[in-house]
Specification:
319 residues; mainly alpha; ABC transporter involved in vitamin B12 uptake, BtuC; two-stranded antiparallel ribbon; 78% helix; globular
């Protein structure tokens, strides 16, 4: 009887964990039969290209969440990076622009990491503050106006494609492989799981938990900058508001993929599912003619839903 009850509880927990994915799968099937343009190769390519930009940052956000933290400033780092990349490419060329932008993103992440890991300030307070400050900096530098580039090398890179798939998904794939290897096959990756699972036990076992948290924030800063660069490659422009929903999008994708906000569990390979689920959902809403304002409302509902389900699952597992 106890075994039957235990199996029933496990089944209910599994259904709750995958509720959003199941609902969206049903929605996809509905779209395939009602909108012929949804399942065309051009639209599939569009979904792949669109999801890859935020996917780069989502990989790093997953690592931060596994460590037991989160970062709201990634969206502002993204917007700032589009601005910095375009300005530096106009001044110094594409190679220098790439490294300057990545380094700047990593520095922003390192700043967050020092305050969270060393000063022991709450990640919410730190990253909310840096989110506002970085966005403000981007507005000041550009006088609140978009900046553009006509760099021919950038245009040539942006035009690279295979069967309609641009260079951006190729970069995303490379980052996926790198992050999966990093978490699964390095000692530092295992330390991140231990730090997120139980901070105090990890510290007492000899793991440098403060350094682990510092590094994951630095990685996310660099990844958000790389995502901003890829967006700049795509549209040849930069502006502070670009990517303003990136942080919450990445958090939602990570939770949909099965990584708990409590930390210590999950993986980048699972986040791929979350990214695809959200990309397909919002692509379908666009095809259905849903306005941008309504899509933002739906994004908020999706985020609330996945966090609520994550909390329910966590509570059931404790019981």
């Amino acid at each position: 009887m106890k075994k039957l009850l235990k199996n029933k509880q496990a089944l209910v927990t599994a259904l709750i964990e995958n509720a959003v994915s199941v609902i969206l799968l049903i929605f996809v099937i509905f779209m395939i039969f009602t909108k012929r343009s949804f399942s065309t190769w051009d639209n599939i390519v569009n979904i792949i290209n669109e999801s890859s930009i935020y996917g780069i940052a989502a990989c790093a956000m997953t690592i931060v969440i596994i460590s037991g933290e989160f970062d709201l400033s990634a969206s502002s780092v993204f917007g700032w990076s589009t601005v910095l990349f375009v300005l530096t490419i106009n001044a110094f060329g594409i190679v220098a622009a790439f490294f300057i932008t990545i380094a700047c993103g990593a520095l922003f992440g390192a700043f967050n990491g020092i305050l969270v890991a060393k000063v022991r300030m709450p990640a919410f307070v730190v990253t909310l503050g840096t989110m506002i400050a970085i966005k403000g900096l981007a507005y000041v530098v550009t006088n609140a106006q978009p900046v553009n580039t006509t760099n021919e090398t950038l245009k040539a890179i942006g035009d690279i494609s295979v069967a309609g798939i641009s260079i951006i998904p190729m970069v995303y794939l490379a980052m996926l492989v790198l992050f999966i290897w990093f978490l699964k096959h390095t000692r530092f990756g295992r330390n991140i799981y231990a730090t997120g699972g139980n901070y105090e036990v990890a510290r007492l076992s000899g793991i440098n938990v403060a350094f682990s948290k510092f590094i994951v924030f630095t990685i996310l800063g660099a990844a958000a900058a790389l995502a901003g660069i890829m967006y700049g490659v795509r549209i040849k422009a930069g502006w502070a508001p670009y990517g303003q929903d990136l942080s919450l999008y990445c958090i939602a994708a990570t939770i949909i993929g099965g990584t708990s906000l409590l930390g210590g569990t999950g993986g980048v390979h699972k986040t791929i599912i979350g990214i695809l689920v959200l990309a397909v959902l919002f692509n379908a809403l666009t095809l259905l003619g849903v306005s941008g304002s309504m899509q933002k409302f739906i994004r908020g509902l999706v985020l609330i839903t996945v966090i609520m389900l994550d909390s329910i699952v966590a509570r059931r597992q404790k019981e």
